[in-house]
Design a protein that fits this description.
229 residues; 9 helices; 2 domains; globular; 5-stranded parallel β-sheet
Length: 229
C-alpha cells in the first residue's frame, strides 16, 4: 500500500504541483485547503505524514501543528512545515519546538521535498529488530506499538518525546550530550543547527508527563548533557 501524504496549502497551484511530484514517486496524496478543516482531515485520512503551509489561509500552521500534537488521534503524525514568506530563525525554531519535524522554504524543489519526507518516515519507522519492550523504574515502553505506561497507566507522548525516551532507555547510564540528541532524535546536522534549548524544552516536557517517580532518574549534568541513571 502506498504511503499517504496529506498536503495542506491554500494555494491551488502548490497543491497541484506537490501532488504531482508525490504521485510520480509512488505516494498516495490527499489535500486540504483550509486550516479550519485540517484537524478533522488528518483524523479522517490517517496519513503517514503531513505537509503543511505555515500561513494556511484562515489559520496559523504553527498553531495547527501544536493542536495536532495535543490530539491523541493525531499527535504521532510527523509534520513538515512550509513557508513562502521571509522567515526569521526564531520563527523556524518556534515551529520545530511546537512539534514540527522539519521546515522547508518555498519555492519547493521536488527532489529535496521527497528526500525530506523519506528521511522522516525512516526515522519514525519501527524496524522488526526494534519490536520489543524497554522497562525501567515501573515504566514500560513498547517500541513497535509506540506506547508508554507508568505503573500500568498509559502516558500519551508526542513523537519527539517518545523518541527521546527510547534513546534514554537504550543508552541508560551513558551521558548524552544535546548535540547527540539533536542528531539521534531530530536528525539534524549539528554543524547547521545546534540549539541545545530545543533539547532542554522537550526533556522538561517529557519529565513532567512521566511524573517524579521516573523523571528523578533523568539527571542534568550541568554543562555536559543528560543521563538516565
Amino acid at each position: 500500500m502506498a504511503t499517504k501524504v496529506l498536503i495542506a496549502d491554500d494555494d491551488p497551484a502548490i497543491l497541484r504541483a506537490v501532488e504531482s511530484w508525490l504521485k510520480a514517486d509512488g505516494f498516495s496524496v490527499c489535500r486540504c485547503g483550509s486550516g479550519s478543516e485540517l484537524i478533522e482531515a488528518v483524523r479522517r485520512a490517517k496519513p503517514e505524514i503531513v505537509l503543511m503551509d505555515v500561513l494556511l489561509g484562515d489559520a496559523n500552521g504553527m498553531q495547527l501543528c501544536a493542536r495536532l500534537r495535543q490530539d491523541r488521534a493525531t499527535q504521532r503524525v510527523p509534520v513538515i512545515l512550509m513557508s513562502g514568506s521571509k522567515t526569521e530563525d526564531e520563527d523556524m525554531v518556534s515551529g520545530l519546538r511546537g512539534g514540527a519535524d522539519d521546515y522547508l522554504f518555498k519555492p519547493l524543489k521536488a527532489k529535496v521535498l521527497i528526500a525530506k519526507i523519506n528521511t522522516i518516515l525512516r526515522r519514525f519507522a519501527a524496524p522488526a529488530e526494534l519490536e520489543e519492550e524497554l522497562s525501567r523504574y515501573g515504566l514500560v515502553l513498547n517500541v513497535s506499538e509506540r506506547t508508554v505506561k507508568v505503573k500500568g497507566k498509559e502516558i500519551p507522548l508526542t513523537r519527539k518525546e517518545f523518541d527521546l525516551l527510547t534513546v534514554f532507555l537504550r543508552k541508560a547510564g551513558r551521558l548524552l550530550k544535546p548535540q547527540y540528541l539533536l542528531e539521534a532524535v531530530w536528525g539534524y546536522e549539528t554543524d547547521a543547527y545546534n540549539d541545545p534549548h530545543t533539547v532542554h524544552v522537550h526533556i522538561s516536557r517529557l519529565k513532567k508527563k512521566l511524573g517524579a517517580s521516573f523523571s528523578r532518574h533523568i539527571t542534568n549534568v550541568i554543562g555536559s548533557g543528560y543521563r538516565l541513571t
